[in-house]
């Protein structure tokens, strides 16, 4: 029998995570599932596809707020009776509360939420939903029993025609298999490259005759090569099959979907009224592919980057439209993986610049053009520097000094990410040894090193062990910072690697926390020592009570996990004061200290100490 579902809607990731965490144990004990959404639009999509026992709905959301969302939900016959509990940080006046009840709310909850009240209110509707599901289940069983009786009566008649029908079906299937082998991709069942090109030629000819537009969407899966290389081709093939189905489910009925090969797909859209039609479908494809794919014991998170070219403005031949859509997809991947970009002429210039940058990266290590800058982390109570973060800089011969964020994606595409990552580990350990030999006070400070996804799957524990031995420094001399989004990749592999590293004595921090949607159960299972609150939450700290509440919730969560908390991106005195009042452990940011070369930082800290 189906389990009841509870929908939680909130545009703040940390608030969403906090509400979900409060209900996790209750859901396990009482047999219901939770679904989350970060906007009213996302909530509506969930409501259209599945029933809910109750909806916890944030009122103040950008775009479609809670009132509008509730009104639309209750306007649909399938969801007209779904109970809605508004969750808000503002104690509105009676007129606003009356408005909420008029929009269909059954109750209000005010942040900070009292856990037991939240659980009790949710359980009332969950139990009611269970009874309804039980009744539906019993009704279905009765219908199936009646259906079975009818089927038995028809079996004798069907046996008479079975032999003849089997022969007809067999012949038809043979014909279909022959046609499919010529036109379909053997793995996914989509159109193959040859058939797709033929369809596109015909579509262009029709569009010219009828003076109409069409769009070519070029899709590429992000991180597929890493998954395929580390987990094997069988897992990669299963992932491609699931992606093909998701893409097919997301497009319009008239659209054509094909697989070019590898992890590249194409969607052909005819009969466009405007270019926005293509954007709508592309964004739907991106959203459909956001949830992880479950393949065996693996939960794999990947996204789809999409480039779009339009006929006739971007080309009038198959080759031109495909090339320009591919360029747009490449640009989308560089801008932000899992995004959508239209083709424009500037992309040709940017592509040449990108290719040049990738070529220059290959020579940067040989020419010793990389350098590590170090940014201090300060204990919030003692105001003492207790750690450093190593940040990569490139003394580029053309572009002068550029930060790692400006070229790291190009390094990934050129296959240099692991090599550069190993250089960073080596340089940080070498610097730690140099400070120790010079009897510098900095030798007592652990150096935090950022780790990228490919490094996890490239023998990271062995690399760390060899480098520490090479320079004769202790594991406590360094820390690893893993972005929270890394956890949504092969969690089993990541956990295993991090556990090996932690057992060696190296501490581990989760960076950019609050943006990756990792669950509390995942965090509990990982051998982590530090949570670094993403600077997007610190930036607006103190401007609204909800921002302060989010940061407070993360700090309290860290306390429950027995790990230290670092707030990154601290830029003002006011932010520092609020973090101190919330009992944050450490702070980092321009207000505390800017990233500096090793010698400059050592000299600055020496002057500060002696002053």
From TrEMBL:
Coiled-coil regions listed = 147-217
Phosphoprotein as a keyword of this entry, yes or no, is: yes
Listed GO MF terms: catalytic activity
- Residues recorded as bearing 4-aspartylphosphate in the entry: 58
Domain named EAL is located at: 354-609
Superkingdom of origin:
Bacteria
Record key words, sorted? Coiled coil, Phosphoprotein
Pfam families per the UniProt record, alphabetical: EAL (PF00563), GGDEF (PF00990), Response_reg (PF00072)
Q: Which residues form the GGDEF domain?
A: 212-345
In the record, biological process GO terms are: phosphorelay signal transduction system
Looking at the record, the residues that make up the Response regulatory domain are: 5-126
Q: Which NCBIfam families match?
A: GGDEF (TIGR00254)
Its name, as the record gives it, is: Diguanylate cyclase (GGDEF) domain-containing protein
């Amino acid at each position: 029998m189906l389990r009841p579902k509870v929908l939680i809607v909130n545009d703040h990731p940390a608030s969403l995570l906090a509400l979900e965490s409060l209900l996790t144990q209750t859901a396990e004990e009482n047999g219901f599932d939770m679904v989350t959404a970060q906007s009213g639009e996302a909530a509506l999509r969930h409501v259209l596809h599945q029933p809910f026992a109750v909806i916890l709905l944030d009122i103040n959301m950008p775009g479609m707020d809670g009132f509008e969302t509730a009104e639309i939900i209750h306007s649909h016959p399938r969801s007209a009776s779904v109970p809605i509990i508004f969750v808000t940080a503002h104690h509105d006046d009676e007129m606003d509360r009356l408005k909420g009840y008029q929009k269909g709310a059954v109750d209000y909850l005010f942040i900070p939420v009292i856990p037991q009240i939240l659980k009790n209110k949710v359980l009332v509707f969950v139990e009611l939903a269970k009874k309804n599901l039980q009744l539906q289940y019993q009704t279905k069983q009765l219908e199936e029993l009646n259906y079975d009786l009818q089927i038995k009566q028809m079996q004798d008649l069907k046996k008479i025609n079975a032999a003849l029908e089997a022969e007809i079906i067999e012949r038809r299937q043979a014909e279909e298999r022959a046609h499919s082998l010529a036109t379909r991709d053997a793995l996914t069942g989509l159109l193959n490259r040859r058939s797709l090109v033929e369809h596109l030629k015909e579509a262009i000819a029709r569009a010219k005759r009828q003076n109409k537009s069409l769009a070519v969407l070029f899709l590429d899966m992000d991180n597929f090569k890493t998954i395929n290389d580390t987990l094997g081709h069988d897992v990669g093939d299963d992932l491609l099959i699931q992606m093909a189905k998701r893409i097919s489910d997301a497009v319009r009925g008239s659209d054509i979907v094909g697989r070019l090969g590898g992890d590249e797909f194409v969607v052909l859209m005819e009969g466009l009224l405007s270019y926005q039609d293509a954007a709508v479908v592309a964004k739907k494809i991106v959203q459909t592919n956001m949830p992880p794919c479950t393949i065996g014991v693996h939960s794999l998170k990947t996204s789809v980057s999409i480039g779009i070219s339009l006929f006739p403005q971007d080309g009038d031949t198959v080759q031109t439209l495909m090339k320009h859509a591919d360029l747009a997809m490449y640009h989308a991947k560089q801008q932000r993986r899992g995004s959508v970009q239209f083709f424009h002429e500037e992309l040709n210039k940017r592509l040449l610049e990108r290719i040049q940058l990738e070529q220059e990266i290959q020579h940067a290590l040989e020419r010793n053009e990389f350098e590590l800058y170090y940014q201090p982390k300060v204990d919030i109570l003692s105001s003492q520097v207790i750690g450093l973060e190593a940040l990569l800089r490139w003394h580029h011969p053309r572009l002068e000094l550029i930060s790692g964020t400006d070229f790291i994606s190009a390094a990934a595409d050129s296959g240099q990410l692991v090599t550069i990552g190993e250089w960073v580990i080596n340089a940080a350990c070498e610097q730690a040894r140099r400070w120790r030999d010079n009897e510098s006070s900095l030798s007592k400070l652990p150096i935090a090193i950022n780790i990228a996804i490919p490094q996890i799957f490239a023998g990271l524990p062995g690399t760390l062990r060899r480098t520490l031995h090479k320079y004769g420094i202790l594991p406590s001399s360094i820390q690893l910072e893993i972005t929270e989004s890394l956890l949504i990749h092969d969690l089993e592999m990541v956990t295993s690697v991090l556990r090996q590293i932690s057992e060696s004595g190296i501490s581990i921090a989760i960076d950019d926390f609050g943006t990756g949607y990792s669950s509390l159960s995942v965090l509990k299972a990982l051998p982590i020592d530090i949570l670094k609150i993403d600077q997007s939450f610190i930036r607006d700290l103190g401007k609204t009570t909800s921002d302060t509440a989010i940061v407070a919730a993360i700090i309290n969560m860290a306390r429950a996990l027995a790990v230290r908390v670092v707030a990154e991106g601290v830029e003002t005195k006011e932010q520092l004061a609020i973090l101190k009042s919330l009992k944050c452990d450490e702070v980092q940011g321009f207000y505390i200290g800017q990233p500096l070369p090793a010698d400059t930082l050592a000299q600055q800290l020496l002057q500060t100490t002696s002053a």
